[in-house]
Amino acid sequence: MRADVTTARAKAKAINFAQKLALIDRPWSPRVVAEMNDDSPANLQFKLVKLEGEFVWHAHADTDETFLVVAGTLHMQFRDRVEVLQAGEMIVVPRGVEHCPRADGECHVLLIEPRGVVNTGEAGGELTAPNDVWV
Ligand code: NI
């Protein structure tokens, strides 16, 4: 069996969101739970994150960013409107589009985006989280 196939099969394990979320102790701090196409330009990471309160306005110049709501309610604020998402709903934020997530209570989200995306985009600030931290 080829080594890369062995590696891929070793990764093919069920990932339990509740178990992973229990290990995340602070909001706005995405944790990688899985990755696909690791060494390809088509790379994507799956990150669980807890949202609470309001984030910062920012955009990602080079990539779209997908938010899939696992629990709670997400208010995805755009400059011209707000999209309200419940658990079981998702939204793709297009590259370059300013957005500011807000959650009035605690909200759990699965982020899907390429490795290396900074959570605050080019805005920076104290809510900028370290990248590529796995849980
Ligand atoms: Ni963003």
Flag low-confidence runs.
none
Mean pLDDT: 93
Bound molecules: nickel (II) ion
Helical stretch tally: 2
Instruction: Give a count of the beta strands, DSSP E runs of length 2 or more.
Output: 7
Largest sheet descriptor: 7 strands, antiparallel
**How much of the polypeptide forms β-strand, as a percent range?**
35-45%
Describe the structure.
The protein has 135 residues and is mainly beta. 10% of the residues lie in helices and 39% in strands. It contains two helices and seven strands, in the order H-H-E-E-E-E-E-E-E. Strands 1, 2, 3, 4, 5, 6 and 7 form a seven-stranded antiparallel β-sheet that branches. Strand 4 (73-77) and strand 5 form a beta hairpin. The two termini are 29 Å apart. The model has no long low-confidence stretch (mean pLDDT 93). The structure holds nickel (II) ion (NI). Nickel (II) ion binds at residues 58, 60, 65, 99, 121.
TL;DR of this structure?
By secondary structure, the protein is mainly beta. Helix content is 10%, strand content 39%.
Q: What are the salient characteristics of this protein?
A:
single chain; globular; 7 strands; mainly beta; 10% helix; binds nickel (II) ion; seven-stranded antiparallel sheet
Layout of helices and strands:
Layout: H1 3-11, H2 17-21, E1 31-36, E2 44-54, E3 65-71, E4 73-77, E5 82-86, E6 90-93, E7 100-113
Antiparallel strand pairs: 1-2, 2-7, 3-6, 3-7, 4-5, 4-7
Bound molecules: nickel (II) ion (NI).
